[in-house]
Design brief:
One of its GO terms (cellular component) is Golgi membrane. The structure is a single chain. By secondary structure, the protein is mainly alpha-helical. Helix content is 79%, strand content 0%. The chain is globular and about 45 Å long. The N and C termini lie far apart (43 Å).
Length: 75
C-alpha cells in the first residue's frame, strides 16, 4: 500500500522479537530496496538462516548476474 516507512518500523520490531524469522528478513530486504536503503545485512542473515528461502535464492542469483556483468565489463 506504499507505506514503506511504517512497514520498515513494524518489521524491525518483529525482527527484535525474533531475529531468526526468514520471512521478516525477506520483507526487510524488499522494504529496504523500496526505500533505497542497504539490505546486505538482512540478505546475509537470510542466506545463513534459510539458504533455500525464495528471497535468499533470488538475492544470490542477482549477485551472480552482477558479478558476471562486472567481469564482462572489465575484460
Amino acid at each position: 500500500m506504499g507505506e514503506w516507512e511504517d512497514a520498515e518500523r513494524d518489521l524491525l520490531d518483529a525482527l527484535g522479537k525474533n531475529a531468526q524469522d526468514p520471512d521478516t528478513l525477506a520483507n526487510l530486504i524488499a522494504v529496504g530496496l523500496h526505500l533505497g536503503k542497504p539490505t546486505a545485512r538482512y540478505a546475509a542473515q537470510l542466506r545463513t538462516l534459510a539458504p533455500r528461502h525464495p528471497a535468499a535464492q533470488r538475492y544470490e542469483a542477482g549477485e551472480e548476474l552482477f558479478a558476471r556483468a562486472a567481469a564482462a565489463a572489465v575484460s
